[in-house]
Amino acid sequence: MFEGRDFRAAAEAFLYPEDASFLGLISYLQALSRRLSLALEEDLRVNNLEELQVEYTRLFITSPYRTPAPPYASVYLSSDRRLKGEGYDEALDFYRRAGYQPVEEGELADHVSYELAFVALLLEEGNLDLLREFLERHFLRWYPRFLTVLKQARPGPFYRALGDLVLGLTNRLREEVTYEKEGLS
Q1: Which CATH number belongs to the domain containing residue 74 in this structure?
Q2: Residue 72: what are its φ and ψ, rounded to 5°?
């Protein structure tokens, strides 16, 4: 089974690449790609942190007309594509059910990075029932839509590969959690 640190690495990779410490994630993500039998190692290579910062800003923060690939569940689960809509409320509900009260500083609670960190917490706590429910009823309802929009925004190789890596990782975890649940029944 995958570990919380796998999802923490993916969560961190979906945050703004502040400094050179971000580059330390690269080899971990490449190894994760190999564990998933995905051929993403070359695409996950980063040669220039500044270029990655510019790409992150272009894709996820702002552009002259709109944000090409907003990384928030509410955008993909709300009929009017607005922030703090249905997906945001769902995420908060799952967090509270797990006993967490998110403090919103910086990103919103339904940001892809926060949701991946939540998956890590549930996995580390062994809360497999809630984890399976979160993946099936929330994360995997919106994330594939986000990935489609991200690819339409023509990302560089790193964010395209990261998007595919996270989809592969969460789908595989859902299978493992479902199998474990059925095996224990």
Answers
A1: 1.10.3480.10
A2: -125, 135
- Residue 120 token pair: 């890590």
Q: pTM of the full predicted structure? A: 0.93
Count CA atoms closer than 13 A to 85's CA, side-chain side. 13
Task: Compute φ and ψ for 111, nearest 5 degrees.
Answer: -70, 140
CA atoms within 13 A on the CB side of 63: 12
* CB-count exposure of residue 37 (10 Å: 0-12, 13-18, 19+): exposed
pLDDT tens figures, 60-107: 997 666 889 999 999 999 887 888 888 999 999 999 999 998 766 667
Q: How many domains does the chain have?
A: 1
Residue with tokens 């944000």: 67
CA–CA distance, 34 with 43 (Å, rounded to integer): 13
Any idea what the Cα angle at residue 84 is, between residues 79 and 88, rounded to 5°?
A: 90
For residue 94, give its domain range. 4-184
Q: Return the structure tokens found at 183.
A: 């095996």
